[in-house]
Amino acid sequence: MGSHAAPIEEIGERQLLPPGTTFSSITETIAGVTEKPAPRGWWMLFLPALCLLGLMFVCIGYLLTIGIGVWGNNTPAYWAWDITNFVWWIGIGHAGTLISAILFLFRQNWRTSINRFAEAMTVFAVLCAAIFPALHTGRPWFDYYLFPLPNSMGIWPNLKSPLMWDFFAVNTYLTISVVFWYVGLIPDLATLRDRSKSLLRKRAYGFFALGWRGSHRHWQHYERGYLIFAGISTPLVLSVHSVVSFDFATSVIPGWHTTIFPPYFVAGAVFSGFALVLTLMLIVRSVFGLHSLVTVKHMDLMNKFMLATGTMVGYAYAMEFFIAWYSGNPYEAWVFFHNRLGFGLIDEQGNWGPLWWSYWAMISCNVLSPQVFWSKKMRTSIPVMFVVTIFINIGMWFERFVIIVTSVYRDYLPGSWGSFEATWVDIGLYCGTFGLFLTLFLLFVRWIPMIAIAEVKATLPHAHPHAHDEHEHEHAHDAVPAPAE
Amino acid sequence: MQIFPRQLNLLPLALAVGATLGGVAVIGGFWYYFSPKNLQVGYAPEQPVPYSHRLHAGELGMDCRYCHANVERSGEAMIPPTQTCMGCHAVVHPESALLEPVRDSWESGESVRWVRAHMLPDHAYFDHSVHLSAGVGCASCHGRVDQMEVVSIQEPISMQWCLECHRDPSEHLRPTDQITNMEWEADDEWRQNGLQEAIASVNPPTHCSGCHR
Q1: What's the predicted TM-score (pTM) here?
Q2: How many structural domains comprise chain B?
Q3: CB-CB neighbors (< 8 A) of A203 in chain B
Q4: HSE value, Cβ hemisphere, 13 Å, CA-based, for A482
């Protein structure tokens, strides 16, 4: 940590990690999670996760056997839970990329306690997301058509389609996220290898540690490589969800055809990503006793991020309504004031748009609930933030549902109006992807260092190159004695 | 301390060789065992009667439509019924041993079990009459049948092959009165006069539902 990052004690700033944290205690705490037997809390999460994973396979198997008619999507709502879930899961991943790339470039040291964890979530969330469009194609065994492969059919992916842009954006995102995550893991895997007792464990970690010895040359290449990956990942934070938003924004459906979508989607993605990182972090922290590494200070900062991005999406919601009114376009106004708001415009029978409640669920969870974070007391209260982060994720799911379904279920012609009702397969598959996510996630926390050991150490005051000059009196025993003459 | 045995240095080589051989085996296996033979150039199934197109259409100069009579009016070019064969062979070589299955069919009323060489998959819709009236000759797709002792597939019947002509049919159009002429070739006169008109009059579909209905 450079001296510019040193806390100003006069105004009440403190070190990131509590006093008494040493290099050794960090290694012991983080490596210990993978070395000791799993605590009961881990099993209490892992077994339900496996059940949900089984549910996912049942739903996918049933869908493949019968066809996608087992989902509730049909005229006029051709996109429904499947695309909602896809956008929601993709959005979850954005916190990882933001924390690992942008906060790294801005030298935000507090990221070190959460970045590994959030990056892993990114990878798992993208895997969950990919399931939905892959099945939505209807005949998933032809999904290889999405790849630009030479073929005997004389056809090629239609690069004028935003769905193809989406395919490439998400694949780029997954590839870079996996590589970046793995590069960051190498020194820590070597630490686990060196601490291993059994030969099998040594070999398993040794294989993935790629022969890391921690030499100065290794560190020099590593630091440079890490910086380059952070640079490559940075545009992805903004591009992936922008491209996802193009799936809607480039169409001409009122409610989708909106220029504010790219920044609005990116802010929403970071918002929901931080919320899920924090929800899971709170659980894992208490299961594995990581209170000294992930402190209330970290959570306070994350809550500030959620307050900021939550306010941004609130602005976007308001601006959409303003444009719906200001544009004078009756169809746009209908979508916003009837389909979403409910009471703004009523239909001929005098009824509200039947899905009005989903809009209000979104507003309450996304815009109202994070406002409690203006208060420092609330930002640092663990029960409050646990509840609010769950609300935020519910709200962000509803945001995508509102955008997708309420834009199309009652459109231009009353004769083509319809509604959408989820089937048990819709619900089961969504819950099932939680099983996939949690299973991967719990295996990750159990077998891979979930906090970046090497990076957290670098934030300790005694990692600072001039630590000995500044605290000579405290660490006199560390100093190298001057050679006698 | 070494935790991996020294022989493991050979692992990358083994993986590279294994991946190459495995890849070749998988691709070759699919190519050989799983490709539909009706779509492969050179496929020449053995027929129950050794009927020679070279003799009938070539030497004797019979028109394609004598046997494939519906080709101008129907989607299917049609395989001739036994009656068509017997129209001549009741008097020409009536005792030939090679024609035994044809006479059996004539007496029993059961069709001769000809083996189909050109067969498109069910998801591809193809209509002979449309192609003929647009000016695509028999030889453009079937090759010089008048020179074949045994009919074999001459062109790769792939979607790409279909689309190449649908996207630019100019090389494959001819005057509609020369459709069954196996020897016709485009000359300068045709290129300068008839072809432009022919191209203007056809509008081959390249959208999905043109063929996948």
Answers
A1: 0.86
A2: 2
A3: 3-4
A4: 2
Contact B67, B84 (CB under 8 A): yes
Selection from B119, B87, B126, B124 nearest residue B212 by Cα: B124
Walking along chain A (485 residues) 10 residues at a time, the average pLDDT comes out as 62 78 89 90 94 97 94 91 94 87 86 90 94 93 91 89 93 92 94 92 93 93 92 89 94 92 93 93 90 89 94 94 92 91 86 90 94 94 95 95 92 88 94 96 94 88 68 47 48
Q: Residues of chain B whose C-beta is under 8 A from some C-beta in A?
A: 3-4, 156, 158-164
d(CA A270, CA B172): 58
Q: Is residue B30 part of a domain?
A: no
Instruction: State how many domains chain A has.
Output: 1
Q: Say yes or no: B190 and B100 in one domain.
A: no
φ, ψ (nearest 5 deg) of residue A114: -125, -10
pLDDT of residue A362: 95
Tokens found for residue A475: 């660490």
Q: Which of A144, A149, A152 best tests the B interface by mutation, with the highest count of B CBs <10 A?
A: A152
Give me the pLDDT at residue A477, please. Answer: 47
* Domain-located, residue A113: yes
> Is the preceding peptide bond at A76 cis, omega within 30 degrees of 0?
yes
CA angle A261, A322, A82 (to 5 degrees): 35
For residue A155, which amino acid is it? I
- B90 in any annotated domain: yes
Q: Are B162 and A152 a contacting pair at CB < 8 A?
A: no
Torsions phi, psi for B136 (to 5 deg): -95, 125
Q: Which ipTM value was assigned to this complex?
A: 0.73
Q: Same domain, yes or no, for B130 and B60?
A: yes
Are B134 and B204 spatial neighbours (Cβ–Cβ below 8 Å)? yes
Q: Which of B4, B159, B164 sits opposite A203 (nearest CB)?
A: B4
Q: B165 and B91, same structural domain? A: no
The Cα–Cα gap between A223 and A342 comes to 54
How many whole angstroms separate alpha carbon A78 and alpha carbon A247?
Answer: 14
Residue spans of beta strands (DSSP E) within chain B? none
Closest residue to B3, CB basis, from A152, A155, A202: A202
Q: Which domain range does residue B57 map to?
A: 53-79+117-211
Name the residue type at position B197: E
Name, in order, each residue with C-beta under 8 angstroms of A322's C-beta and a sequence gap of 6 or more. Answer: none
Selection from A306, A457, A316, A312 nearest residue A384 by Cα? A306
Enclosing domain of residue A77: 14-147+171-464
Which of A:181-240 have CB within 8 Å of B? 193, 199, 202-203, 206-207
pLDDT tens digit sequence for B193-206: 888 888 888 989 99
- B86 found inside a domain: yes
Place of tokens 């009122």: A254
Q: What are phi and psi of A259, to 5 degrees?
A: -75, -15
CA atoms within 13 A on the CB side of B142: 24
Q: Is residue B17 part of a domain?
A: no
**Do B65 and B159 reside in the same domain of the chain?**
yes
Ranges of residues in chain B with a pLDDT under 70 are 1
Q: Are residues B91 and B191 in the same domain?
A: no
So what's the pLDDT on residue A58? 97
